[in-house]
Every structure is written in C-alpha cells, then in structure tokens.
C-alpha cells in the first residue's frame, strides 16, 4: 500500500470556541487532541496556540513550547507550528515561534489574500467569549499579509533553523510566487506543498480547483515535490482528501478546517476526523504514514534537533 501523510490541525487560529464545544482551548486539551489524532493515524500535528483563559489565538512562544514539549515527551509525532497565526497578529508575532522552538516543520504562506471569517458570525447563535463576534466580523476588512519581503525574511529564518516549510497555497498566483522564490534561491527543493481550498478570499474547495492547481504545479515544478490538500468545511475536507489519495497526494484534516464528522453531526475530537480519513484512504489502498515514515519522506531534521 502507498503511504499517505495525514496531518491533524488541532485547533487553528480562525475558528472560535463558540462554534463547537469540542474545540480544544487550553494547552492540555490541545495536547490530548494530539494524542487522539496520533492513535487514529496522524503522522503530523499542526499547532496553533490559544490563551487558556479566554480561548483567543495567541503568538506567545511559551504557550507553544508547553504544547509542543508535552507532545514530544509522550509521542513520536511530527510537530508543525503555524506562522500564519491569527487575525490581528503582526508578521513578526506570527514568525516568532520559529527561532523560539526550532521546529521540524512550520507552515509558510505564499502570498497575501483577503481572509474572510465574517460569514461564521451569521451562524453562531450564542458566544462563549466576548471577543469572538468582533474577531469574526472585523475580517470583512482583513488582508492576510504575506508580501515578498515577509516571505524572504521568514524563509531566511526557516533556513537558519533547518525547519522545513509547509508551503501553503491559497490561490493560483501563489504557485507563481513559489516559482519565483525557487528561481531566486530563497527556497530549496524538494518542496512540500499544501493546497488550502475553501477560504473566503482564496480558491473554492472544489475538485476542479484541486486538479487545476496540481496540473499548474506539475508544469512549474516538475516532479520534485510532495503535496497535500486542505478542504475547508464539510464535506470538502473528505472529498478532496479522497481525490488526493487517488492522485498520489497527502491530506490534512482537523478542527482548524472542519468541525463536522457528518453533515448533521459535530466531530467530538480530532481523532474522529483522522479515523474517517484513514478509512477513506484505505479504500484507495493507502495506509497512513507513521511519524518515522513522515520524517523520511519529507527529509526532516529529526525531533532531537528541536528546542522544546
């Protein structure tokens, strides 16, 4: 069977706790979700941090360190930290976790886009925290900023720490940005791409868009790359995951991207989402890659070389 890398994005910086009672907030809750995801078949966990007092996304490196350190102590998971952060964070705040923790992997966004979360506010009936409604509604005027200067600076930080960038691609032009950065020597092959489809402001989460992006990447990059897909929302998370299994790609699931296990039911854990994706993958003769296999497939520096 072909090995497929399944990443679990545990809590995110864009969903708000009032959307689901099952979204992990405190460091210990996030860590326990990591263990559930590992047991279900995830090889990578993607980490955002939240203020444990109010659930708001935070860039505090010490909160990241607590989460990542506890995961490392009790599992073999690959920890991929965010540099996308959350609404209201500066690029410097978002990137500060890289030199602080020196992780094996970190997300890296390949361009600026509008990033609209405000439609979520129309669906939330009651808010758990007083910051949530404004957080969502203010994204009507929010640009997720990733200029060429930002990207060049962050790539230098990642290179210094030998941290593998997980290349987040929200729109077609981001692949052209990647080709430029590769041509100018800011980034090295082999590459690991992640198509992020379904954010309001980027490409929609459709099979047609995924095929378009895959064909465009093949023309620009040849075959010296691996790729994964995020389908934001239900059922896109699983539909696009199935297509990725068919086409030789990898998959990200988790509560950062989708809160439902079925059309009418919320997922009670990230582990449930991973379990469902594993079942789908096995229908296509794919087996989830272990963390050790992930490290070999992506050429990671190893858990002994992180600072948490």
Task: Provide a short characterization of the protein structure.
With 308 residues, the chain is an alpha/beta fold. It is 40% helix and 19% strand.
Task: Summarize the helices and strands and which ones pair or pack.
Layout: E1 2-4, E2 6-9, H1 27-40, E3 44-47, E4 49-50, E5 57-58, H2 61-74, E6 78-81, H3 91-95, H4 97-101, E7 105-109, E8 113-114, H5 118-121, H6 132-137, E9 143-144, H7 148-161, E10 164-169, H8 172-183, E11 191-197, H9 207-221, E12 225-231, H10 236-247, E13 250-253, E14 260-262, E15 265-266, H11 270-283, E16 286-288, H12 291-298
Parallel strand pairs: 1-16, 2-3, 2-13, 3-6, 6-7, 7-10, 10-11, 11-12, 12-13
Antiparallel strand pairs: 4-5, 8-9, 14-15
Helix pairs in contact: 1-2, 1-11, 8-9, 10-11
Describe this structure in words.
The protein is α/β, with parallel strands linked by helices. The protein has twelve helices and 16 strands. Strands 2-3-6-7-10-11-12-13 form an eight-stranded parallel beta barrel, surrounded by eight helices. The protein has a two-stranded parallel ribbon with strand order 1-16. Helix 8 (172-183) packs parallel to helix 9. It is globular and about 50 Å long. The two termini are 34 Å apart. The mean pLDDT is 97.
């Amino acid at each position: 069977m072909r090995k497929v890398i399944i990443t679990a994005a545990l809590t995110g910086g864009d969903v708000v706790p009032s959307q689901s009672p099952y979204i992990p907030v405190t460091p210990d809750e996030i860590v326990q979700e990591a263990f559930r995801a590992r047991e279900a078949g995830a090889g990578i966990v993607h980490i955002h941090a939240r203020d444990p007092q109010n659930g708001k996304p935070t860039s505090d490196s010490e909160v990241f360190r607590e989460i990542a350190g506890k995961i490392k102590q009790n599992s073999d998971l690959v920890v991929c930290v965010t540099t996308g952060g959350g609404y209201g964070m500066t690029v410097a705040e978002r990137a500060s976790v890289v030199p602080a923790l020196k992780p094996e992997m970190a997300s890296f966004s390949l361009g600026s886009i509008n990033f609209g979360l405000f439609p979520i506010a129309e669906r939330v009936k009651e808010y758990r925290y007083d910051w949530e409604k404004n957080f969502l509604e203010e994204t009507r005027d929010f640009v997720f900023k990733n200029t060429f200067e930002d990207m060049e600076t962050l790539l230098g930080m990642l290179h210094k720490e030998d941290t593998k960038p997980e290349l987040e691609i929200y729109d077609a032009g981001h692949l052209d940005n990647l080709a430029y950065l590769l041509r100018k020597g800011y980034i090295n092959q082999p590459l690991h791409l992640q198509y992020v489809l379904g954010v309001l402001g980027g490409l929609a989460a459709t099979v047609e868009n995924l095929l378009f992006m895959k064909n465009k990447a093949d023309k620009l990059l040849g075959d010296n790359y691996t790729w994964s897909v995020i389908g934001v929302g239900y059922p896109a998370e699983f539909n696009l995951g199935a297509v990725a299994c068919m086409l030789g790609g990898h998959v990200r699931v988790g509560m950062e991207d989708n809160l439902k296990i079925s059309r009418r039911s919320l997922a009670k854990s990230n582990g449930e989402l991973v379990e469902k994706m594993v079942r789908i993958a096995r229908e296509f003769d794919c087996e989830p890659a272990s963390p050790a296999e992930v490290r070999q497939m992506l050429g990671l520096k190893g858990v002994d070389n992180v600072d948490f």
